[in-house]
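Request:
You are asked to prepare a plain-text protein record giving the amino acid sequence and the backbone structure tokens, at your earliest convenience.
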Amino acid sequence: MKKKEIPKDKQALEKKNIGAYLVLFMDRAEVTLLTLGVAGLALILIANVLARTFFQSLYYADEVSEFLVTFITFVGISYATRKARHIRMGAFLDAMPAKLEKVVLIVIFAVSAVVMFELAWHSTKYLLFVKMLDQRTSALILPYYTFLIIVPIGFSLSGLQYIRSIIKNFKEDDVWQSADQKSEYDDEIVGGEVSE
């Protein structure tokens, strides 16, 4: 029996769909984790205030809150990078011609990716050092390094998002501020007319 050959166009489409599904999964996972983290932080802080007012303070509230703030911060780094919600020099870039803006953005993304991976490396070394010390949290008596696992993961995912942004700008003619966010002012509506 002879195998059917899949046309190259269809193979490329399937690969693109796998990448699109992966990006969609990452987006939903990050949004879900951020939502649960913020909701959990709000609940634990409100519960602690009520417990302190009427009964006795929750002994573990500070540690759980500290973990959730760290978790939200480092999951949020990747999300902010992917949605182009990081600090950038918008007015400076908007004054440039599109080709120069693209070159400057690629350089910024490359430097940012290197910094993120460098921070991931140093945070991993620190994580292993804390694990070696076998530090424990005071209230929950959990290994302290478990609170820090998200730090190198967040930096690494942010670095990968910057690399995706570089690839997107090389592939596309338009200027992309991230892999998911096109330049904001490409088609601005002024007085009912589209200006470019």
In short: The chain has a mean pLDDT of 79. The beta strands are 188-190, 193-195. The chain is about 70% helix and 5% strand. The chain has one domain: 8-189.
